[in-house]
Amino acid sequence: MSPFFASLQLLTLTDILWLPGLILGFTVHELGHALVAYWLGDRSAENRSRLTLNPARHVSLIGLLAFIFLGIGWAKPVRIRPGAFKHRHWNSFLVSIAGVAANALFAGLVFVGMMAVSVVAGIIAGRVGADYTQVWDVLFFEEGDPWGWGGVLSALTGYVVDTNVSLALFNLLPLPFFDGFQALRNLWRMITRRRPADEQLAAEQIQIQFEAGTQAVREGKSTEAIAAFRKVLELKPDIYEAWHNLGLIYQDKGPTHAAIAAWQGALKAATDQETRTGLRERLASLGWEGEPEASYTTLLRQLPDTVRKRPLGDLGFSPAGITGQRSRSKKIIRWGSLVVIVSLVSFALLVGLVIKAVGPDEYIVLVEQGISLMEMEQMEEAEQAFQKALLKDARRAEAHLGLGMVKMAEEDCAAAVIHFQDVTDAAPQLGGGYLFLGFAHLCQRELDEALDALDRARELDGEEVRVYWALGRVHLQRDDLVAAVAAFHQALELAPDDGDTHADLAFTLYHLGDLEGALSEVDTALTLNPDSASAYETLALVYFDQGDVEAALTAAHRAVELYPQTVPALYVVGCCYRDQGDASQAAEYFRLAIERAGPMRFQQLYASRAQEALLALEP
Question: Are residues 289 and 240 in the same domain?
Answer without folding.
Answer: yes
